[in-house]
Design goal:
Blueprint lengths: L3 H7 L6 E4 L3 E5 L9 E5 L11 H18 L5 E6 L14 E6 L20 H12 L1
Antiparallel strand pairs: 1-2, 2-3, 3-5, 4-5
Length: 135
């Protein structure tokens, strides 16, 4: 497998590591959107969140929780984002969480601004969606 994040985890590619546990690694994004843009990855290769073990998931998101407070030393708020699969915008097929410091003047908007073709579901469609997701 030729995964850049696995290469960072193994030390084959250098990175600016800011936090590490036995199961997760956090490092500064090599192509940051803003100062402090950080990626948190599980050390085991998973393509999507639902593939992760319960222990790896717990460690990853505990690391995200701890680091979010530290990253907000750079800005009053933060965006925590996961692209879960290629169609969602995931560019590296290894689970990773972005923690991005946010300021009002940074020019980025809310997540709803990403979607220009938004549906207008009927009550029947909402009922169907609710039933599918509850099973």
């Amino acid at each position: 497998m030729d995964c850049i994040f696995c290469s960072i985890i193994s030390g084959k590619i250098p990175a600016r590591k800011i936090h590490e546990t036995s199961k997760s690694l956090a490092f500064l994004d090599a192509f940051p959107l803003v100062r402090g843009h950080t990626l948190v990855v599980p050390k085991t290769h998973y393509s999507k969140i639902q593939e992760m073990s319960q222990l790896d998931n717990a460690d990853l998101f505990e690391t995200v929780r701890v680091l979010t407070g530290k990253i907000e030393r750079l800005a009053p708020s933060s965006l925590v984002a996961v692209h879960n699969g290629k169609e969602s915008g995931q560019e590296v097929p290894h689970v990773h969480v972005h923690i991005i410091p946010r300021k009002q003047e940074d020019g980025a908007g809310p997540v709803h601004s990403m979607f220009t073709k938004r549906p207008k579901p009927s009550n029947a469609e909402l009922d169907e969606t609710e039933n599918i997701l509850q099973k």
